[in-house]
Sequence to fold (229 residues):
Amino acid sequence: EVQLVESGGVVVQPGGSLRLSCAASGFTFDDYAMHWVRQAPGKGLEWVSLISWDGGSTYYADSVKGRFTISRDNSKNSLYLQMNSLRAEDTALYYCAKAGDSSGYYPFDYWGQGTLVTVSS
Amino acid sequence: SYVLTQPPSVSVAPGKTARITCGGNNIGSKSVHWYQQKPGQAPVLVIYYDSDRPSGIPERFSGSNSGNTATLTISRVEAGDEADYYCQVWDSSSDPLVFGGGTKLTVL
Fold:
């Protein structure tokens, strides 16, 4: 059974930093690209970032480019999101999602339950 | 970046057909995926590549895509179909992956 378990969400002050983690199991992690998707309270889904199977290719939404960094450790079956210079508008539930292929072009086929990041003073 | 436009809400009586649209410039040239999200739950893929259904998704769910509009059609709507639905495409612009704003389906 595929499982994606996010962690690391907390309350952080504007301008602060945070690192989210996603522990994956139930599939061959290094065969698939992975994404982060967020959802602000009461709002829609917003794609955040994508990393290819080997970490060789990464993509970011304009809203986080230059502030967030996606990475993965295939030896630990883990995905990460380093979030710097956080803003109030980054407040959201952050989902880890598995792509259906190694590059990320296929749709998401599994999602975690999310970890909540709140940016507030 | 590429913009996908969905109606905020659609209402339908049980047993009837619901159609949820997703508008975008020449969206017919792109592959559209649809996700269902029920309250407090993570999204679930219900249609991929315009009209394919993942295993476990009822045949009542279908999709089409042409011109500037993609459509998710839910036939014989049930109370359990009440959820938010999001369309999604891959685009070659600055934001390569885009979601529509979402449509809340209400079953009357």
Notes: Chain A has no helices and eleven strands. The two ends of chain A are 40 Å apart (CA to CA).
